[in-house]
């Protein structure tokens, strides 16, 4: 894919460097295209090059032993890929994959390590990025454990848009599910809710943010918290721009910072190498600790999710998940048997289609009451006969989700004459 060469200064780390630090690196910087799906680094492989993106988005991904993937952090023009190479390590601990196309400048890791010893601004900028990365991973641990999928998706889309500098995110629903560590069905439902609220517009392979202010209000608190912490980082580091997704302001501040340093000429003092390595090793220890916490949290969540899914799937009582318009979205095995449908393969259709015509109006009134949170009683209705049973009278009990946008139903036969 052909992209426009925006120059190394479009990367926030390289763009903050004064000429006397950037010039020695220029001859060693190699421009490369970031094509979607390219695996820049794989886990446990030696890091030969680091990459400074000027556009596009790279996901840094953790994969569990069962194959479940979760995004640790996103990197664009705010940072670099291959950070372990300058933190005292030689091997990648996780996977780095291009998600949105763009450009980057590649530099040998050994060359960057030598430049770190000599360049005081480069030292400060990389340490600032490490601090930002630690904050992002830390927030990710809390976010994935305590916030709803819809809120997390809103935050994720905003972060992508900030790094891309626009209002369109090129991504599939499957990829969004992988990055957030949730089922594709959950992502589809969360995206549908955001679209129904007029906040986004879904296309095949992309998502447009149509109401940024509204999406920010819908996102979890982590988004604004990360922006607040980013503004507190050292002068010159303004990773993803402001909360409006415009990176020009951050780049202008960096350019001004670099010009001030240029006026000082070469009369600057580099930090002692021992102090640099001590600072980097401290940051690496903190980063490793947070990644370890994240790994433990995801393993715990994965085990709990599996236990819940088993309880749900094999429960003797029929359970149903209905959307805002009363369409059947999910059921367990007992529910599929009761409705006479295939559990593993069924199309979304109105729950009312399974009811006797005399029960439809009563059910719809009950369902609207459940979604509004006003209903506390059950509803007696009759299910149509199927190939395996006659008409069946059941009592439904319902509870809305947190947003009142979908409903969970449990069905109990009123008579023991018809057994499942």
From TrEMBL:
Domain HTH crp-type: 147-213
Protein name: cAMP-binding domain of CRP or a regulatory subunit of cAMP-dependent protein kinases
Gene source species: Ectothiorhodosinus mongolicus
InterPro entries, per database record: cNMP-bd_dom (IPR000595), cNMP-bd_dom_sf (IPR018490), Env_Response_Regulators (IPR050397), HTH_CRP (IPR012318), PAS (IPR000014), PAS-like_dom_sf (IPR035965), RmlC-like_jellyroll (IPR014710), WH-like_DNA-bd_sf (IPR036388)
GO molecular function: DNA binding; DNA-binding transcription factor activity; kinase activity
PROSITE patterns, alphabetized: CNMP_BINDING_3, HTH_CRP_2
Any one Pfam family match given in the protein's UniProt record, by short name: HTH_Crp_2
Ranges where the Cyclic nucleotide-binding domain occurs: 13-116
GO cellular component, one term: cytosol
Keyword list, A-Z: DNA-binding, Kinase, Transcription, Transcription regulation, Transferase
């Amino acid at each position: 894919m052909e992209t426009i060469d925006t120059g190394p200064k479009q990367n926030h780390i390289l763009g903050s460097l004064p000429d006397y630090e950037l010039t020695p690196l220029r001859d060693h910087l190699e421009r490369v295209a970031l094509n979607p799906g390219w695996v820049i680094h794989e886990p446990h492989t030696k890091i030969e090059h680091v990459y400074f993106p000027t556009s596009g988005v790279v996901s840094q991904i953790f994969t569990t032993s069962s194959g479940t993937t979760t995004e640790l952090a996103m990197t664009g023009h705010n940072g670099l890929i291959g950070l372990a190479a300058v933190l005292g390590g030689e091997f990648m601990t996780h996977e780095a994959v291009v998600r949105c196309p763009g450009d980057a400048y590649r530099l040998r890791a050994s060359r960057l390590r030598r430049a770190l010893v000599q360049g005081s601004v480069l030292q400060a900028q990389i340490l600032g990025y490490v601090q930002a990365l630690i904050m992002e991973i830390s927030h990710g641990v809390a976010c994935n454990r305590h916030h709803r999928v819809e809120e997390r998706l809103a935050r994720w889309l905003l972060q992508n848009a900030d790094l891309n500098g626009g209002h369109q995110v090129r991504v599939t629903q499957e990829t969004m599910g992988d990055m957030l560590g949730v089922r594709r069905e959950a992502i589809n439902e969360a995206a549908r809710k955001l679209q129904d609220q007029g906040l986004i517009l879904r296309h095949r392979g992309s998502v447009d943010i149509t109401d940024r202010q509204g999406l920010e209000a819908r996102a979890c608190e982590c988004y604004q918290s990360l922006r607040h912490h980013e503004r507190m980082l050292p002068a010159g580091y303004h990773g993803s721009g402001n909360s409006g997704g415009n990176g020009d302001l951050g780049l202008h501040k960096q350019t001004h910072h670099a010009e001030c340093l240029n006026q000082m000429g070469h009369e600057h003092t580099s930090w002692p190498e021992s102090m640099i390595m001590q600072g980097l090793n401290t940051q690496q220890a903190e980063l490793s600790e947070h990644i370890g916490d994240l790994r433990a949290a995801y393993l715990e969540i994965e085990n709990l999710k599996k236990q819940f899914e088993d309880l749900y799937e094999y429960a003797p009582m029929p359970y149903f998940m209905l959307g805002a318009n009363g369409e059947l979205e999910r059921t367990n095995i007992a529910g599929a048997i009761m409705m006479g449908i295939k559990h593993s393969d069924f199309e979304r259709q109105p729950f009312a289609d399974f009811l006797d015509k005399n029960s439809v109006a009563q059910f719809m009134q009950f369902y609207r009451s459940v979604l509004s949170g006003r209903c506390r009683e059950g509803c007696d209705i009759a299910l149509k006969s199927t190939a395996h049973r006659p008409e069946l009278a059941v009592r439904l009990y319902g509870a809305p989700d947190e947003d009142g946008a979908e409903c969970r139903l449990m069905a109990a036969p009123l008579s023991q004459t018809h057994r499942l």
